Recover the amino acids of this structure.
């Protein structure tokens, strides 16, 4: 068993998008072979890049409010919301509130 | 993209352990092929069964406090803690506090 707090993991700033920090929590180095856990923090007015890739996202909103874009859809986000974004669908998460938007985003092992 | 709140998913009571409810959030029915997301709520004094299985757990503590058992180790849990429990390791989560312990627990697609 490995245990740590997400705050113990150094965040990296994303070059794409705006005002986004990412912490890689559970990775291959930790022992994960099937899927990886990351925590994102998006500052007010920030957004992740609008992009797509072959793998899916599983997202859980921890704090804050925002908007998710997936394909031609848009929906509001709040704490406790769950998103499944299938592989190949263009997507983006935006923080249009005045507080940090914090969420987990998990992906299959793709490296 | 599929979006819903975790509260929209009906919880099931676990027969094993004590005082544990589980909501299956992201499943094969939602479109997930690689890994599944579940949310657990453990009432004060409750615990998950002490068991083991070949697949790993990736856990994120959302609310509350507790104790995790993994192999011969025990550690305290608080909000924001991350656990990686490798496949084959006997494990249990216990709530020794007076508030609900809430966590996400993800597993690879094993069905």
């Amino acid at each position: 068993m490995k245990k740590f707090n997400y705050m113990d993991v150094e965040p990296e700033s994303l070059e794409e998008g705006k005002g986004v920090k990412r912490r890689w929590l559970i990775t291959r180095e930790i022992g994960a072979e099937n899927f990886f856990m990351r925590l994102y923090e998006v500052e007010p007015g920030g957004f992740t890049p609008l992009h797509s890739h072959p793998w899916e996202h599983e997202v859980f909103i921890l704090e804050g409010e925002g908007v998710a874009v997936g394909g031609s859809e848009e929906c509001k986000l709040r704490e406790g919301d769950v998103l499944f974004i299938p592989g190949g669908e263009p997507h983006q998460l935006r923080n249009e509130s005045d507080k940090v938007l914090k969420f987990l985003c998990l992906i299959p092992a793709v490296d």
About this structure: The beta strands of chain A are 2-5, 12-13, 18-26, 35-47, 57-63, 66-70, 73-77, 81-85, 91-94, 101-108. The interface with chain B takes residues 1-7, 25-26, 30-35, 37, 56, 58, 60, 62, 68, 70-71, 73, 75, 77-78, 80-86, 89, 91, 104, 106, 108 of chain A (CB under 8 Å). The mean pLDDT of chain A is 97.
